[in-house]
Amino acid sequence: MYFFLISFMLLGAGLKYIDDAFDEKIFNKNLAIMLAPFLGILWAYTMIIDQFSATILLAIILGVFVKGKIDNYAHLIGLAVIMLILVFAGVNLLFLPLIFIATAAFLDEMGNDVIDKNRECFDDNKFLHKITLYFFDQRWLTKLTILYVVLIGLFPLFFFLAILLFDGAYLTVRLYTRSKQQMKKAACV
Asked: Do 21 and 27 meet the contact criterion of CB atoms below 8 Å apart?
């Protein structure tokens, strides 16, 4: 159990580090490229050793891949490593939960893109707008879908905690990136 909690947390943080190295140009791209194969190995290993973990992690890959979010060299390297290992090692999946969670991940990515592109159209004083921004900014559809799969008894409860740690680590790196951006802006003034 503890391995999955730590692994999911490292994967979430590593994924966002790579994102922000390329998209926000906050972190070192060369380090992100060097980190990618190691994250790919950890991702694949975490999938190989457990069918629940494999289902969740492949669903995340499918959701972001179909949405076109695997958009830099480091992500492509990590994905290639994952797929290469999985081809040779094999993986056990739960197909109906995979489809369910992958659909949620895809819809979360779509919703996140919509709020990112239209953030100025949302009124922070309106409750529904606040909830919508928070829901898709934090990608809650995937988390709630995993919670549902846990509550109906298909997955162990600690995988809900694992996805919370994945997203928590992802959001922590994002928060760090934003604080670095604010410090750069303040230094330029």
From this structure: yes
8 Å CB contact between 27 and 70: no
Give yes or no for a contact between 18 and 35, defined as CB atoms under 8 angstroms apart. yes
27, burial (CB in 10 Å: exposed 0-12, middle 13-18, buried 19+): buried
Domain residue limits, the chain: 2-188
Rg of the Cα trace of the chain? Answer: 17
Q: What residues contact residue 45 under an 8 Å CB cut-off, 6+ apart? A: 7, 85
Q: What is the pLDDT of residues 48-89, one digit of tens each?
A: 999 999 999 999 999 999 999 999 999 999 999 999 999 999
Residues of the chain under the 50 pLDDT cut: none
Q: What are the distances in angstroms from CA 85 to CA 21, 26, 110, 150?
A: 25, 30, 29, 28
The three-state secondary structure class of 139 is coil
Which single residue is written with the structure tokens 């997203």? Answer: 167
Which residue bears the tokens 């999955």? 4
Tokens of 44: 């694949």
Is the distance from CB of 103 to CB of 24 less than 8 angstroms? no
